[in-house]
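Tokens for chain A. Residues wanted.
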């Protein structure tokens, strides 16, 4: 099995993405995660660019990594300054890493207009930079900036730049599609030609401006590249970098390359690594991301579900567990009886009779016609199954609520008070009131206040997300609304839904489902 080196640049190129910023602690945590995943090289940043990156390289020297080699990143030396006098190159050496990657110009257009020097001078800059670094650092890689554009415009000069790096001591030539404009066929053809022209290992660094970064990376590997550069979840400037969460399983599972130190066993961590990084950078998880997204192995259509029940490979290109994911059955008005049966089994419920499945299917489609959506509210759907199959237990008897919202002047914030009346399972009549920052918050507080004495475990529940969707724009403020609530405890999260022309009533239904689901999940309701 041929080895492909994975070079992760999430900590450097990934942080150039809009809205992405990492603290020093964030960078160290991600480094540990990538190392445990089996990444070969982790680019830590530019030690000459800012104090945070300089401190990162100081601290990373004290960490004991299992598989990863840390790389410092910078550029060739400035024209007109000797390599050994260049502050950037000095900082790269001072970083103390086993590996250094520098970028340099290979497109003569950039040499003329960006650097303002002659082509021959640029060749000397490349050569001298590597000659200096190689005398101090074990491995030095060349990120040949804008290489493919440079080759298309002046192939002979682009090749000369690569040869200058090799003569200076470069260990790997990384061909960069810096503006992300190339297509897969171009990448394959040019990489094939370069491999024949230059006697050095090749790498690929692709950007995603044409939505081809993953495909371009795979084509470069097919043409002979042995190092792949990219980021977790495709984070990066503009449209992002090549997404390692797609590249690694494509190469390893589809083409038979070895990409991680732990092989296929390590690959089962892929989804966890993806979600870990999105949490650290404070971004929502990408639901439709291939391989690792929540929707990657989610099935909704009744015919599809019927087929995967017989054999999962009918609609799944790999076994989800290979990348740490799992199959999901979605419930909607497209569902069939087999979908409901499969979903019920997933909840550990028995629908018993086929006639009940048919009745539940009709009920489901009627509810979705009213605006209910159970794809993000599986807790509400589980309660629905229990109610229709006689497995539901009532947590309390609802007798009514009242909401009071008061605002005394324009500048002052409103006050919100909820009053709830209910009967507990032991027959006690409870009448509680609570305030909140908004009417829904007040309802939630009053509901918990009434129930927590009888069900103390509800103190563990917190509300994570609250969404309101207007269902019919034509009716204006009288339109029906759908409320989706995500709740959770220390063990799991769950979604619930409520629909009504009144946003408060819709919120109430979703809140009650959230509470009841917790009680059913933990088997806290007495028979």
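Reply:
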């Amino acid at each position: 099995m041929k080895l492909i080196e994975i070079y992760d640049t999430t900590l450097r190129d990934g942080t150039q993405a809009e809205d992405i910023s990492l603290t020093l602690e964030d960078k160290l945590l991600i480094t540990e995660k990538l190392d445990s995943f089996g990444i070969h090289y982790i680019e830590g940043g530019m030690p000459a660019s800012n104090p945070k990156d300089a401190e990162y390289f100081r601290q990373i020297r004290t960490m004991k990594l299992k598989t990863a080699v840390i790389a410092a990143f910078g550029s060739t030396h400035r024209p007109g300054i000797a390599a050994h006098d260049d502050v950037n190159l000095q900082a790269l050496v001072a970083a103390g890493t086993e590996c250094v990657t520098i970028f340099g110009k290979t497109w003569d257009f950039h040499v003329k207009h960006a650097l303002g020097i002659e082509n021959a001078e640029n060749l000397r800059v490349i050569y001298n930079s590597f000659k200096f670094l190689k005398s101090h650092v074990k491995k030095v890689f060349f990120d040949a900036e804008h290489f493919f554009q440079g080759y298309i415009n002046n192939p002979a000069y682009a090749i000369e730049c690569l040869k200058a790096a090799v003569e200076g001591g470069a260990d790997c030539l990384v061909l960069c599609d810096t503006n992300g404009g190339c297509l897969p066929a171009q990448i394959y053809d040019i990489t094939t030609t370069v491999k024949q022209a230059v006697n050095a290992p090749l790498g690929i660094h692709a950007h995603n401006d044409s939505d081809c970064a993953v495909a371009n990376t795979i084509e470069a590997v097919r043409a002979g590249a042995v190092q792949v550069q990219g980021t977790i979840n495709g984070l990066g400037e503009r449209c992002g970098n090549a997404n390692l969460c797609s590249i690694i399983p494509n190469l390893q599972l589809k083409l038979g390359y070895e990409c991680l130190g732990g092989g296929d066993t390590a690959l089962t961590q892929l989804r966890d690594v993806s979600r870990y990084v999105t949490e650290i950078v404070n971004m929502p998880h990408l639901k439709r991301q291939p391989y690792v997204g929540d929707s990657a192995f989610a099935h909704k259509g009744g015919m599809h579900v019927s087929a995967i029940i017989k054999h999962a490979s009918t609609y799944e290109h790999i076994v989800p567990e290979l990348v740490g994911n799992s199959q999901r059955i979605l419930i909607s008005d497209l569902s069939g009886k087999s979908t409901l049966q499969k979903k019920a089994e997933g909840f550990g419920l028995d629908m018993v009779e086929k006639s009940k499945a048919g009745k539940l299917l009709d009920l489901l489609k009627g509810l979705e016609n009213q605006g209910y959506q159970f794809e993000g509210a599986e807790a509400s759907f589980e309660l629905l199954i229990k109610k229709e199959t006689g497995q539901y237990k009532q947590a309390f008897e609802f007798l009514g609520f009242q909401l009071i919202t008061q605002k005394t002047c324009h500048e002052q914030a409103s006050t919100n008070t909820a009053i709830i009346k209910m009967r507990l399972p032991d027959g006690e009549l409870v009448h509680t009131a609570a305030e909140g920052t908004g009417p829904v918050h007040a309802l939630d507080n009053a509901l918990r206040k009434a129930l927590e004495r009888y069900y103390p475990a509800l103190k563990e529940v917190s509300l994570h997300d609250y969404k309101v969707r207007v269902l019919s724009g034509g009716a204006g403020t009288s339109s029906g609304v759908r409320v989706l609530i995500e709740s959770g405890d220390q063990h799991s999260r769950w979604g619930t839904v409520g629909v009504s022309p009144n946003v408060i009533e819709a919120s109430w239904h979703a809140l009650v489902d959230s509470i009841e689901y917790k009680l059913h999940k933990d088997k806290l309701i007495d028979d």
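The longest strand covers residues 397-406. Residues 474-478 have pLDDT under 50 and may be disordered.
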